[in-house]
């Protein structure tokens, strides 16, 4: 049975998805540390920034009113492969841009704002961007038991990819085809 989340945010606080900019990094690092330190998966500023520099058009910030409420980092990666948590990406000009797979590396919503449907805005922006740029698949590594969430959203485990070293004992590599849908409207991220 799937759960439906109603967007439960104050009406006066607009939800906005946008590209990440330099002023976001302190907030992103704090959100990432709060989400992943207890799992032993925190990457730190340099690794996070390197992933955004490798593919700035596929990384997003989520604002709720004036507040940075979350972020999503994604970058082209060959299927069944994923970033090394302990190493920054190589030089941006060396990024694997020919991949037809877009890897959703990291998505975080502030702890006090979870279970309100906000992550959907980030995933929708990623999906629209993947579609607009001709990606065929979106992959991810589910950690901390999040594979159940991703399965509800059409992602399936790929046993051939193996267990990602360094992502924790319950990590699961998952992917899905980019769903068909409308192109982004003028002014929309994507």
Structural class: alpha+beta
Q: Strand order of the main beta sheet, please?
A: 1-2-3-4-5-7-6
CATH class: Alpha Beta
- Per CATH, what is the topology? Aminopeptidase
| Beta strand count | 7
Average pLDDT over all residues: 85
Largest sheet: 7 strands, mixed
CATH A-level architecture: 3-Layer(aba) Sandwich
CATH homologous superfamily assignment: Gcn5-related N-acetyltransferase (GNAT)
Number of helices: 4
Secondary-structure element series? EHHEEEHEHEE
Percent of residues in helices comes to: 10-25%
Principal-axis shape: globular
User: How many distinct folded domains?
Assistant: 1
| Rg (CA only) | 16 Å
Write a concise keyword list for the protein shown above.
190 residues; alpha+beta; Aminopeptidase; seven-stranded mixed sheet; disordered N terminus; disordered C terminus
């Amino acid at each position: 049975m799937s759960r439906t989340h109603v967007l439960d945010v104050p009406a006066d606080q607009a939800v906005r998805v946008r590209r990440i900019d330099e002023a976001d990094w302190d907030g992103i690092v704090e959100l990432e540390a709060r989400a992943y330190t207890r799992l032993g998966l925190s990457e730190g500023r340099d690794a996070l920034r390197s992933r955004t520099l490798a593919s700035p058009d596929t990384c997003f910030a989520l604002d709720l009113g004036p507040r940075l409420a979350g972020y999503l980092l994604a970058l082209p990666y060959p299927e069944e492969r994923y970033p090394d948590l302990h190493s920054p990406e190589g030089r941006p000009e060396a990024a694997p841009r020919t991949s037809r797979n877009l890897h959703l590396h990291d998505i975080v919503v502030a702890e006090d704002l979870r279970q309100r449907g906000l992550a959907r805005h980030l995933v929708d922006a990623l999906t629209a961007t993947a579609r607009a740029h001709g990606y065929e698949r979106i992959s991810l590594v589910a950690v901390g038991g999040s594979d159940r969430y991703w399965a509800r959203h059409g992602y399936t485990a790929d046993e051939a990819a193996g267990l990602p070293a360094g992502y924790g004992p319950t990590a699961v590599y998952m992917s899905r085809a980019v769903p068909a849908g409308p192109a982004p409207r003028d002014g929309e991220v994507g």
